[in-house]
Amino acid sequence: MRDATDRLSRLAALGALAAVLAFFAVAAPGFATLANVERVLVNNFALLAIAALGMTLALSIGAIDLSLGTAIDVASLAFVCALAHRAGCASAALAGLGAALALGAANALLVTRLGIAPFLATLGTLFIGQTIQQLATDGGQPIYLLSTAPPPAFDALAHGVWLGVAAPLWIVAALAGALHVALECLTLGRQARALGAQPGVARHSGLRVGALAAGVFVASALVYGVAGLVLSSTVRSYAPQAGNAYLLNAIGATFIGATLSEARRPNVAGTLLGVLLVSFVANGLLLIGWNFYWQQVASGALVFAVLALGSGVGRERRARDAGQSG
User: Fold this and answer.
1) Is 323 within the bounds of a domain?
2) What is the pLDDT of residues 178-233, one digit of tens each?
3) How many domains does the chain have?
4) What's the whole-model pTM score?
5) Checking DSSP bridges between strand 165-166 and strand 161-162, what pairing results, if any?
6) What is the CATH number of the domain that holds 188?
7) Strand bridging mode 143-144 / 161-162
8) 146 lies in some domain
9) CA dihedral in degrees (136, 142, 147, 149; nearest 10)?
10) Which of 23, 33, 114, 184 is 20 to 30 Å from 276 by CA-CA measure?
């Protein structure tokens, strides 16, 4: 019986996605076309998926990383500024990733050395990062690469195609594969999950909790930095605080994936499924002409519905387990 309940839990997200696709295929003209699906995957799904994969790492240790958007933005800022000063694309990319890593290191220091709760620590770096951006851009002015043509590799990040598949989707696939192996197959990944599930037990079992948490914050920031590079290539500029638009959706998608997984924990496949849900809902609502603000309401309602479904399945499973043990 427990196996049947677990299968229902795992299939719940797939059922929700199928229901969303079926509804919009009927209600939204053009939704079910191949061109629209490709547009959603490249323009909506890819960037959010990269950001949400970084959030999945943070949630694996039980932390909600509010600095996600800021890390994306500082990476984009450093990347575009370096290109504007005629740095090579590789050097500029390293500058962008380095800026994101610095933010991750700050989070790690605040949490592991000063003992600040992750939610508050990342909230602080969010505000500090936003202020740095304002100071560096004269109050938040965009930076366009007008005086010099960007290197071909810059455009290829977001607009390139390899074997018929857009470059951002290859980046998502590479990151998803690497993070899946890290979380599911490596000892460090299992230790991170143990820390997230039972922090007290993890500490008393001899795990190097501080080093583990610090590594996760830095790795998450690196993934956000990749999103910042792709975002810069997508808009061919630095757009002030554009990364914050991905924060809440990344959190929601990651929680959807965690809630509906067999073990109720963050996982790569569940996160990607959550991102698909969020992306196609936003696209479908746009096609049927809903106001942007109502789109946000509908997206929030979807998150509530899927989480409630997963919670209901979880309660049923726990009740049956209790009955069997009794």
Assistant:
1) no
2) 999 998 888 888 888 878 777 777 777 777 888 889 999 999 999 999 999 999 99
3) 1
4) 0.89
5) antiparallel
6) 1.10.3470
7) unpaired
8) yes
9) 110
10) 184
